[in-house]
Amino acid sequence: DEPRGPRLVGVAVDITERMRVESALSATEDRLKRAQELGGALAFEWDARTDRVVAAPAFKALYGLAPDEPMSFASFLSRMHPDDRERVEEDLYRLLAAPGPYESEFRIVLPNGAVRWILSRGESLRDGSGPPTGLAGINIDITARKEVEEELRQSKREARARFREIRALYQHAPVGLALLDIDMRFVR
Which residues, at least 6 apart from 142, have a Cβ–Cβ distance to it below 8 Å? Predict the structure, then answer.
């Protein structure tokens, strides 16, 4: 305080460039998030020390969880199909013991009983050069692909059965049979 009254002393800093960079980063993050969603890739991080999964609401919805519902390794395993649970749990502990990338396909069972196929890809996380502290990756719902693969397997089984029937018919028919092509050439 001086006789002329209070004064304000400060420094003005131009933050225009920083704001431009932050805006560009935000736009890039939005594009990445949209690309992941369009591709069905739902990102997650699991911290093994706190047993906490950090993921977007869409990731939790994939597992039948509410957006505000916490997700842990136990809640993840509780959704696992019984036939896949042991293998997936062993894979997780292996990744924590020997870090590196991973890829796994497994089934989950939603609260309504629906079964979904999941493709999970990612890698172990570390703090510096210490042991792994968790996992980071993406999950993709591949149920539609698995259904098409099963339909294809079924179709191949049916085609092989029909072929065996036709071959048996040719081999055991009490009359002569011939198969000719469009130019009337003998094929069989």
Answer: 105, 117, 118, 119
